[in-house]
Every structure is written in C-alpha cells, then in structure tokens.
Fold each of these.
Amino acid sequence: MRMIFENLLALLDRGEDAVLVTVVLAQGSTPRGAGSQLLAGREGLMAGTIGGGPGEAQALAFAAELLREGRSAVRRLELRHGGELDSVCGGEQTVLFQRIPRDSGSWRSVAREVLKRLEAHRSGWLALEAGADPALLEAGPAGPVWDGERLTFPLPVGERVVVFGGGHCALALVPVLRSVGFRVAVFDDRPEFACKERFPEAEAVVCRAYTDIAGGLELTAEDYAVVMTSGHSHDFEVEEQLLRRPLRYVGVMGSRTKTAYVNGRLREAGISEEATRRVHTPIGTAIKAVTPEEIAVSITGELIYERALRREAAGEAGHSCPSHL
C-alpha cells in the first residue's frame, strides 16, 4: 500500500489522473483476496498487484478504459478454466475501479494521511466507494468488509514479532521476517547483542533484564513473541511473563529436555497447563533446519502460516491459487 499511495501522489503532482483498483470480494480459489490493490495510470501499472496473470491484465485494460471515460465502476472477474480469462484458479474477484481526478484534494489528503500512518505503524480504516471520496476512519472491522457498495478495511500497519534473544539465530531471523512484512523488535539483556547496529532492520532494539520486559517494551495482544534466549533460565523468565498476558502467538526455540525443564518451572510459578499448551515449541516448520539461516526460514514459515490463519479468521481470504506474477 505504501508504494501505491506514494505513486498516487506522484501522479497527482504531475497533473495526471489515476485509477485505484481494489479487490472487494474474492470467492473460490483466487490469487489475491479482498483488500489487494494496484494503481494504474496512463502508462499502465504503477504499483501493486491483484494477483497477476490474465485477470490482472483485464483489470488494467478496463482501468485504461475508465481513465479515458473519466468514470469509476465495479466489475466481476471470473477466474475459471476455459472461461473468459482462461485461468485454472476457479474463483471470482469482485473489483472496485476508482478513477481519481488529478485535482482531487480529498484523495491527496487521504493519501498523505495513509502514508503518515503506515510510517508510524498507526492503525486506521480505509473506506472506498465507486464515484465517492475516500474516507479514513478511526475504527472499523477486523478484516475487509464489502456491503455491496462500500469496502472498509484496515490499513496494513504490519504485525509485530518480538524476538527475545539477539544471538546468531536472531541475526538471521530479523531480515527474513522483515522481507515478508513483519515488523520486528529485539530484546536482549546484553548490550553487545542488543544494539541498533547489530539489527538495523528492527524497529526497536531493547537492552534490559529479561525479568523486566514491561520496563523496556509494551506488549500488545496482537504481538507475536519468539523466544530464543541464551539459556534455560532466561527462557523461563521470559515465558513466565508472556504467559500471564494475551498474545497472538508465543514460540520457543529449544530441545524437548529444555522445554520440559522450563515447563516444570512454569508450573511451579503458577502458570496453568492451558497457558503452556499455547506455546509453539519447538518453534518452526519441520524442514530439518540446522544452520541459523535455515532456522530463520523455518520460523518465518510458521509465522506466515499463523498470520494467514489469523487473517482468515478476520475475514480476509486465504486463497489457494498461486499468483501469476
């Protein structure tokens, strides 16, 4: 979305009209779900994607037509084998095409505010309707909602992963997480491991005792926590605090022996069996990872999966048809 709205402002600054193309409803197997967007100008695709392939090609052709005619529209794309688009996906996308005039002050204002919120990781909900000015709301649904005329969906401010432990595996993990859209914070009690120079891609690096997480970092119920500290005791200190509060996900790296030891101490500390069962351990997708780089891929794979489950539950489609990029 960031590139889409940056390009939109650039087009408006050059005195050019644009068309914002947004998937408002996806049924069956489609490459991208509701909320997926692309921006088209007189030169064609400027930024974003709704899945690539023949469906996107038709969307771009229709966007060019709307630019010439100066109007907005809603159109359904059927992605079926042997159908209009000769696609094997077997689904449908309902797509909103919004023509944005070069002199639109409302679009310019909303675009600037969207970029400001994305930069600050501040939430907001975008409301879009054919032929109408956009609206940026302070509250809205958990996922995209289309009522037949208007789409309301949250800004993609990004889920945050808090990595406890700044060792070799964390060093490999942070850039991989960032590459797939997670925000990342790193927490370690050693100054040489908890420094911005070591983790330039992390939005926050905290050096503080593991016994005082709250003193260095505010956790939210939407956070994902990855525990990979330097020892059993530190794992216990971190988990004991994490499991006393709601979090989106808690994963711990370690052997069965380490897990049994930590779980025993957690029970002694009054942590319930139900809470310890929420912990994903050993963390990561089972790909027989050995090196820090392989472990980073394994953990990221599991977090991608957990994020997808959450988005599906929130009403965002998880579609099985691959992108045709």
Amino acid sequence: MATGTGTQAGAGTQTGTTGRTRGSDTRLSTGRAGSGGGRLRRGLLAALVAAAVVVPVSAAASPNVPAPAPATFSEDATSRSRYAANSANLAEAARTAEDADRPGRAARLRAMGSGGAAQFLTFDGRGRGRAVEVFGELESADRVAVLVPGSDTTLDTYERFRAGAVSLQQRLQAEHPRTAVVAWLGYDTPGTVSTTVLSADRADAAAAELAPFLDRLRDISGPGARLSLLCHSYGSVVCARTATGSAVSDMALFGSPGTGAGSARELPTGARVWAGRGSGDWIGNVPHVRFGGIGFGTDPVDPAFGARIFAAGAVGHSDYLKPGTESLDGLAAIVLGTTTASEADRG
C-alpha cells in the first residue's frame, strides 16, 4: 500500500517473528477435484487482491546507492549527540552519492539535512535507507506521536513522509506546545508493485524493531509522556503485530488494508485501537480476505473488528495528514487525548 499520508521510518534488533495465518479451506481435503478447485480459488483470490492493491499506484524506485555505515552509539547516548552524529553521517552520505554519480539521491539527502536543524535519532543512507526523525522537543514532550509508514517509503520518497510529520506537528503545537512527532522509517518497506505487499513478512520484521524502539523512546521523552502510534496503510500491519507493552496508550490505523487479525482484541497491545478511512481512499476497494498468508482479513473500520472509529472525512489514500483535513484533526485529537466521550465510546 503506498504510504504518502500526505506524507507516509529505527533502531532495534532485526529478528523476525512468525506471521499468523488462518486455516486452509477444508474443502481442499475432499479429493483431487476439490484440491484443484481450491488451488484455483486461491489463485484467483491472490490475483484479485494483487490487482486491487497495485493498480492504483506505481512503485517508487530505490537505487542501491553506496553510503557510509551508520553512526553507532552507546546505550546512554543523548538525543542531542545522536542528532549531531547522524547529521554528519547524512552529509557524508550525500557526498558519497554524488561521487557515485547518483545526483538525484544526493539532492534528496541534502534536502533532508538542509538548514542544519534536522533531528535524526537514526540514519542509514545505504540502499533504500532508513531514518527516524524527531519534530519538536522530545525530552520535554508529554504527548509523542510515532508515525509508521506503508509501502514504497524510502529515502527517495522521504519528503512526502516528512511533510505529513511536519503537518501533524504544527497541528498539535497549535493546541498543545509540549508535543513531538517521530517519523519512523525504521524498516524495509515493501514495494507497492510486489508480492511482499500482500503478506505480513515485512511487517513481522518491522515489528521486531519497532517494539524495542518504543521502549527506548519512552525513556528519552518527557516524564510520563503519552505515546501514540499512528499507522498508515501497510504500516497498520506493522503496528498490529507490534507488542507495545505499556509504552503506547493509543494506536490509530488509517488507510489500512487490514491487519491480519480478526479483531482489535487479538492485537498484542493494551492500547486503545482506533481506525479511520477517508471516503476517497481506494484502499476501501481492496478485498478484506485472507488465504494462505495472502491478504489481511477483517477491515479495521468494520464494526466487527471492534476498533474505535475516528472521522476521516473525504480524503484520499495519500491525504490523511494534509493541513485542514478532518482526518488530521481526528488524529491530532487521538494524540492529545481530546476526543469527545461519544467518539471514544464507538466500536
């Protein structure tokens, strides 16, 4: 699912977890004819899901660009020391890309570091790249939103992801100054036009990195900070497979194709689970089914899933965090904890 939340994220141990799958159609055990019919049904279903997902958008190329190894830090490294070291690494990555005759990547990296005020907790310029950027004063924030992007989010498409984070931070600060937004490009996102976007394999690997990151983030945020996970498109599959412990109070799934779970109660979190989808979002046409590890099952905005619903208005798939939208207001209210009683009681 293409991220582009007007927008569309990383440290941690890279250890994958086993994806959850549903049982096979029992009709497959009724003999040769039934087996062939089952295979045909599954093949047609996979083709249907793939067509629904990949036709509306095109994949973004991420060249295998050389770059220096990322900076390393001790466990007690301060946020400020990380920002400084990663800024230097980003600048070196831009020079390396230029020397490798990759002017497009070099220009995008320079844009990421322009002005010298960027705050990267993590940066890795190799290949598709990874970056975790902070907007606001994390150490004093008592409301922290973590944005998790979907497919085709790389250093080559980073500007759209950053734009959404900036938009959210400006919206939050207008109402509550002690807020911060963390744009978490901390995993290898799947390509929109690929088979990887139809399974949870990338999400499992990402969840194994996101969970420990959230624990560390709570430690370096302001005292008693309230953390919220805002998860777009394939990022909602990542969040739904992340064990959040007590680090996260709210999880919002938007533009979601499903999570692989049948209900919000099945998710490994004690957070309040929210879901929203704009009336102009093509993701609503994706079949909400799951067979043999393909597809993501129950629609999170379906009452049967049991999530709290937030209003997303008429936005399209890439517009949830655009200024002035109802969806941005709804997500900001979740982060700030200012949803009305009637909204909080839905689902």
